[in-house]
Amino acid sequence: MSLKPIYILVLTGMLLGGNSGTAGAASCANAARQVAASTGGDLLSALPAPDDPNMCLVTVIVPASDGTPPRKITRRVPAS
């Protein structure tokens, strides 16, 4: 997993999130790395939660090992 896509997604989240600052974006980037590592998935998006600036919505695509399609998982995690 490359860091560059994470930062692009976090910056997109900042633009769409409106009132979240750079501290929230950095926190979601760290949370995104942790979720991607724990699931073995590829990061799809990492955005500050719209109702709580201390939480992030992280979505990853987890590849299947048995021939089934990959799964999309969204986790609500604390900003770190």
Can you describe what's shown?
The protein is of the alpha+beta class and 80 residues long. It has one domain: Nuclear Transport Factor 2, Chain: A. The protein is built from 2 helices and 3 strands, in the order ααβββ. It has helices at 3-17, 22-39; strands spanning 42-49, 52-62, 71-78. A 3-stranded antiparallel beta sheet has the order 1-2-3. A hairpin with a 2-residue loop joins β1 (42-49) and β2. α1 (3-17) packs across α2 (22-39). The chain is elongated. The chain starts with a helix and ends with a strand. The mean pLDDT is 81.
Q: Say how many strands there are.
A: 3
Radius of gyration: 12 Å
Uncertain ranges: none
Helix content: 40-55%
Strand content: 25-35%
So what's the overall shape?
elongated
Along the chain, the helix and strand elements come as: HHEEE
Largest sheet strand order: 1-2-3
Mean pLDDT figure: 81
From the coordinates shown, what is the CATH architecture?
Answer: Roll
CATH names the topology as Nuclear Transport Factor 2, Chain: A
Assembly context of the chains: single chain
Q: Give the N-terminus to C-terminus distance in angstroms.
A: 19 Å
Tell me the name of the CATH class: Alpha Beta
Count of DSSP-assigned helices: 2
Largest beta-sheet characterization: 3 strands, antiparallel
Structural class: alpha+beta
Tally of structural domains: 1
Signal peptide: 1-25
Organism: Martelella mediterranea DSM 17316
Protein name: Secreted protein
Keywords: Signal
